[in-house]
Design brief:
mainly alpha; 7 helices; Tc1-like_DDE_dom
């Protein structure tokens, strides 16, 4: 009845951390453009070199500001049009799900252990997984169009 293997400890308010991965929160247009300038551009250069690419972000105020649109135009970067009230098809949501699933078996006891588990989980995501998610975008968009904006399997 009280065998340790039959018991599971729990806490009412477990420790948690906010995770930031190639995105940011609570920024204004100017700070968003600085992030793009100092982090996105070097990463894009490393990943794509001189090849064209399409940048994706949602309609957060900092993203949709006129000055941000001008920044992308000035840098010759194509931005995916993002309709208002659209389903969140951003593949990074799937990456977060992968991280969460990998963390289910981890039982961190401290904040440092939780951070280490998150970092290890994120680091274990392969480039192939990212490429598959990116390659799924045409199917995702087609599914939303077919469903007339209603929920899809994505």
């Amino acid at each position: 009845r009280e065998m340790p293997k039959c018991l599971k400890s729990s806490v009412k308010y477990p420790q948690s951390v906010m995770v930031w991965g190639a995105m940011s929160a609570a920024v204004n247009a100017a700070s968003y453009q600085e992030i793009l300038e100092h982090f996105m551009l070097p990463s894009a250069e490393k990943l794509y070199g001189d090849e064209d690419f399409i940048f994706q972000h949602d309609l957060a105020p900092a993203h949709s500001a006129k000055t941000t649109g001008k920044w992308f135009t000035d840098h010759g970067i194509t931005v995916l049009n993002w309709p208002a009230n659209s389903p969140d098809l951003n593949p990074i949501e799937n990456l977060w799900d992968i991280v969460k699933r990998k963390l289910r078996d981890a039982r961190p006891n401290t904040l440092d252990e939780l951070k280490a588990a998150i970092e290890a989980s994120w680091a274990s995501i392969t480039p192939q997984q990212c490429h598959r998610l990116i390659a799924s975008m045409p199917r995702r968009i087609e599914a939303v169009i077919s469903a007339k904006g209603f929920p899809t399997k994505y």
